[in-house]
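Honest question from a wet-lab person: if I give you the sequences of every part of a complex, can you actually get the arrangement of the whole thing, not just the pieces? Trying it with mine:
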Amino acid sequence: MSNQNPVFIPGPTNIPDRLRLAMQVQTQDHRAPDFVETFAPVLEDTKKVFATTSGKIVTFPASGTGGWEASVSNTLSPGDTVLVARYGMFSHRWIDLCQRHGLDVHIIDCPWGSGAPADKFAEVLADDRDHRIKAVLVTHNETATGVRSDIGAVRKSMDASSHPAMLFVDCVSSLASMPFEFDKWGVDIAVSGSQKGFMLATGMAILCVSPKALDAMEQARLPRTFFDFRDMMAANASGGFPYTPPLQLIYGMRESLKMLFEEGLDNVYARHFRLAEGVRKATAAWGLNLVAQSPDLYSDTVSAIYVPEGFDSNTLTDHAFNTYGVSFGIGLGEMNGKAFRIGHLGSLTDVMVLSGLATIEMSMADLDYPVELGSGVAAAQEYFRTSCANPMQSAA
Amino acid sequence: MSNQNPVFIPGPTNIPDRLRLAMQVQTQDHRAPDFVETFAPVLEDTKKVFATTSGKIVTFPASGTGGWEASVSNTLSPGDTVLVARYGMFSHRWIDLCQRHGLDVHIIDCPWGSGAPADKFAEVLADDRDHRIKAVLVTHNETATGVRSDIGAVRKSMDASSHPAMLFVDCVSSLASMPFEFDKWGVDIAVSGSQKGFMLATGMAILCVSPKALDAMEQARLPRTFFDFRDMMAANASGGFPYTPPLQLIYGMRESLKMLFEEGLDNVYARHFRLAEGVRKATAAWGLNLVAQSPDLYSDTVSAIYVPEGFDSNTLTDHAFNTYGVSFGIGLGEMNGKAFRIGHLGSLTDVMVLSGLATIEMSMADLDYPVELGSGVAAAQEYFRTSCANPMQSAA
Amino acid sequence: MSNQNPVFIPGPTNIPDRLRLAMQVQTQDHRAPDFVETFAPVLEDTKKVFATTSGKIVTFPASGTGGWEASVSNTLSPGDTVLVARYGMFSHRWIDLCQRHGLDVHIIDCPWGSGAPADKFAEVLADDRDHRIKAVLVTHNETATGVRSDIGAVRKSMDASSHPAMLFVDCVSSLASMPFEFDKWGVDIAVSGSQKGFMLATGMAILCVSPKALDAMEQARLPRTFFDFRDMMAANASGGFPYTPPLQLIYGMRESLKMLFEEGLDNVYARHFRLAEGVRKATAAWGLNLVAQSPDLYSDTVSAIYVPEGFDSNTLTDHAFNTYGVSFGIGLGEMNGKAFRIGHLGSLTDVMVLSGLATIEMSMADLDYPVELGSGVAAAQEYFRTSCANPMQSAA
Amino acid sequence: MSNQNPVFIPGPTNIPDRLRLAMQVQTQDHRAPDFVETFAPVLEDTKKVFATTSGKIVTFPASGTGGWEASVSNTLSPGDTVLVARYGMFSHRWIDLCQRHGLDVHIIDCPWGSGAPADKFAEVLADDRDHRIKAVLVTHNETATGVRSDIGAVRKSMDASSHPAMLFVDCVSSLASMPFEFDKWGVDIAVSGSQKGFMLATGMAILCVSPKALDAMEQARLPRTFFDFRDMMAANASGGFPYTPPLQLIYGMRESLKMLFEEGLDNVYARHFRLAEGVRKATAAWGLNLVAQSPDLYSDTVSAIYVPEGFDSNTLTDHAFNTYGVSFGIGLGEMNGKAFRIGHLGSLTDVMVLSGLATIEMSMADLDYPVELGSGVAAAQEYFRTSCANPMQSAA
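Yes, you can. This is the full assembly:
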């Protein structure tokens, strides 16, 4: 039933052996000194991936959705206003979460395939003279559309009117795969998870929190216990956890950070760009279009690709799975039926990507797509071979 | 630094090899048919462990604390009254959670070492003629004191005045180790986790929810998204998950259930009783006292044992860890310094328990406790060897 | 340094997760009943893979070379004559072994790329009227050249003169990947290993021995202890081992057999043919030639492919390894520098094969081979997609 | 069926998690540079464990028996005389091997429980004026009797008459657990394996060979191929292997050496002595006798213990296995029925040893042995707690 083919979903990623082994930890006493010695450096090292010195790392045994909830419930009060642009499934879900938690959400609806509208943010914020907007929420990498937004531009749009709102960024599917600048971009809370760029199993929400967000925490009246920053930080400070910690993921995180630093974060980002570019070359060779509207928005972790008119993307992904045993991302939300997605993040090589391209190409041929067999693969091969500067550049 | 000695903390438990292997799952597409086929039977089989046919199983990628939060936030509204007895650290923490979430908590303070006060519950409930109390919250096994409460008696105390309050039970450290009767006891929400009787890694909160609690959900106004029952049940119904599922734990859970059913739940309970009884025989031989006030309260998953006057239990557990590399539970809360705890749950054998008893005995001798070396071990040996009906009775 | 790319060497194969887990066995007492219950069925089930009911399975903790030595030292005496054809590295090595052990080896030298010369065997055997030849040694699948010989034809050549010599077959790189007929072909000793079709780690020689070979054992005077059939069979008969058994491989073997039978041996063979055929289509599209001289000799587990005149195959395989992190088989012996090899056996899918083809294609382009980028991949894709009868046909 | 109890057989040992993980290596190309970089340092570091600078390390994918065969077949010729004392099962088996390989074995029969008779060796060697004896074969640690012989004394007995015979030592169950001095003792070939002091799976014979033995190789006429030193050393010299190497064990060996060096070889030896001494204290407290005749012969890796008159040791070990799920060593050969064995080597702690002692004690009580329950455990506890100098001294 199962096989050893890689998955091409945009996370959870293929887990490298090294991390599978690292997570195979027998139970240890999380109240013993070993745990402290393991956990504290993990928190410290994770800051490097967020590119922060001022932020605090807070983790929870939860998924990214839990991280979103933590960001909101620790810093805001019922009735608070937040500003969010909706341009994909994940920005949509964060909005939904805010509404369920009694926030007043100012929504800017944008076409799927576009990114965070810095200019519109600037307008709305400039108009908000009495600073009712407490936070701007942005999805850095919209996994549903393969769009990466410019967080630096969002920050500028906020600075333009010197608006004091906090900036919350969902970087679940971008962190540790594409550059992220917590300090430089003035992010207040960044939310990520263990199962994407960190290449681990699902189960740990990883947040970075600015001093400003910690101040906001003092007045925040949304209820929280499991996701309480204060409890977590207090326990962490003495090397503990307010409840049972996810030991296996913490050991996995330690090894993941080692892997990332051994390769070098810049090399990790360059590798992701190169793999993504290969996929984009193939897409062009097929004559297909990306959902992302323009090159500046192209994500290096996932490509959402429109199928031609008259075809159903779900049939394509089902066929690839049922016939060749390979999983690709389905089209989500508005893109359901219209686009399929190729995840190209985490522990992946050009060689593995080529097998994914070859598979989806066969699937398209099987379903009579107007696509020439081998064309996408050849385009990616040509790009990969000519862009391959470093021998053995591949991730572990 | 690390060694292969078992841990004697009251969870997370020693993870059996079989479950460590089962959790070593490479990433699979959680939107693919395989996942549905794996997950649905897990939910169904888990009901057997709760002894329910009417309840629904709901899981979250979280710890038991997250399970508590889910129980409260899905069924109650700000200002609602709940009735809780406080007789240990975990009942205390649940109270704290309720208060943070804006509930009005009617607290019955009881001495640590006692159990849920069914008679006092009966009084309070009888007095609550306009039924302001929406839920009674009970900790089945108070891990801090080694006390198991009589949930059937609590149910009777509620029935005595035909009070309509819901009954919520924390069975984190009892489920799958001691008998639990969701249907028979009329429980409305039971909260457990992956890392105790299920012998898995930490990271999955496991709840059982009655139809009555599901009805209450319709009016409940506490905010929740990550822990929303409705989202989870809707996604589960079609074989999915509202966000990324903890794949490794789900596969682990499937194998854990197999192990439990292969041994037979009654045999699992009998084994836990036998191991606990061995520890209690040793305790008596040492001339020490359990924190649990009377035999009907003795927990079969953890024993909290008072150190003699003039000794500090933390020194004892530190010594055992530093000198012999064995972890025991420290005294929590009121018991800090006064009692240590021996966890005896999960995948454990009499042989392993004897090594724990021998170790703590050496530690007591090292610290000049008035305890005869070998006495506790011999008492446990005598009990184990005479109570050993079935050859190869040991858990996997 | 390491990555998750598959290897394309002709064994050891990529080990499927399921078998990696199966081999993760903690030490058990090999003198305890568990071992007997595990090992005896493994021996029995292995017969099915050899297609024998009359043969006995004998295993040693050794490599295939050890298996060769066992075949010779258990059945022959110093000075005995054996007949062997040399048409590749592995037939050459077996000859060398015989000579070192004092046998008189009648060698028939054949061109590399040809197979076992049944007609020449027939001649030599017909001439050997006083039956000095005690055994005919044949390499079923010559891993160095990608040639599969016709063992049935060899048997016929022996039967033609009713020659009583034993027939020994090296099926190290064919068993469990291509059809093998121990009984039907009248094989007397077949030698295989754990690390090829069985998809396990290296370390177990697996032999099948006919009653006739067991008779020969009674007179055989070559010394042997470690590899003694009699000791092994006697110990095995009571569920034991004459020395410490390779427990992990035995458990691995048990699971490997399960996997093979679940897929069905015929499906396993068909899958290997299909993957091999895809590689051959690619080879043709590149305009390159196989070392195997004719289609009837094509191996379904490994293809040896000549590089064009003026190119060095070692440069090619080094480049693929150093630039793309993928291992292919180098040219061995006479083929060194002239041919490279693609291993396509064990737990492999069409999707994985395509990544290998894409990689070697890029490497050829990098080194200015007269090969069109994408051509081989497209040819294999076209074959794979049109020959793909069963959805999810891929091996585990 | 299986459980997590430690085994107390004298090897294979309980495999520590760290080594189980280290052996979980996916297939790599053993002809690629990675392999060279891994394997060469392993060979070099292994010398430290043999305490040699002059010796060469040679490994084979085989068990210790294969190592014995290699020692003999690489250095001797049919008809050569070797001198061996027989004082247990393993010395007996080595004699048998020599005889099967056509050697003339001068046997000195000694009582089981005694060690290598240096004085008798001296006599025989002094009498052998024309130096027909080519090698003296000694079992350092006789696993069947728990006797460690004095190899230094054997060397002196050889030097007394300046006899040029080689000295071969079986250190399978002593190396990496008790001090071994290859150079100082003038050993010519020492034979060990992966599954004892190295704490790995079974499957690698590990030999150390002196320059003198390598010289002898030039004239040696016993046939060998699989076990040929020259082939192995030639291949190793260029980082290769003459056939498929046992990759997983080589990676395991690398990590095992790391573990041994991290703990420090002297600490490893001291730990083994301490664990053994605890077992001996228990034995004395039970009023039972060791098979080893005197304290200077006591092995630190295994204790063979006589059961009282009228009892059958097999009944005892069967009972311990069937009732408590713990494996002890049975009495081998002459000791069958008369003695049982407790293995105390490898990755073991005092805590684990106590569980073994407690178990065998219960078993003896069950079978009405005249042994006081708890007596042996208490004696070992008292020794362990007073001899415990270093906190966290336990091996990983």
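Two things worth pointing out. Residues 17-261 of chain D form a domain with the Aspartate Aminotransferase; domain 2 fold (CATH 3.40.640.10). Chain D has two domains: 17-261, 264-386.
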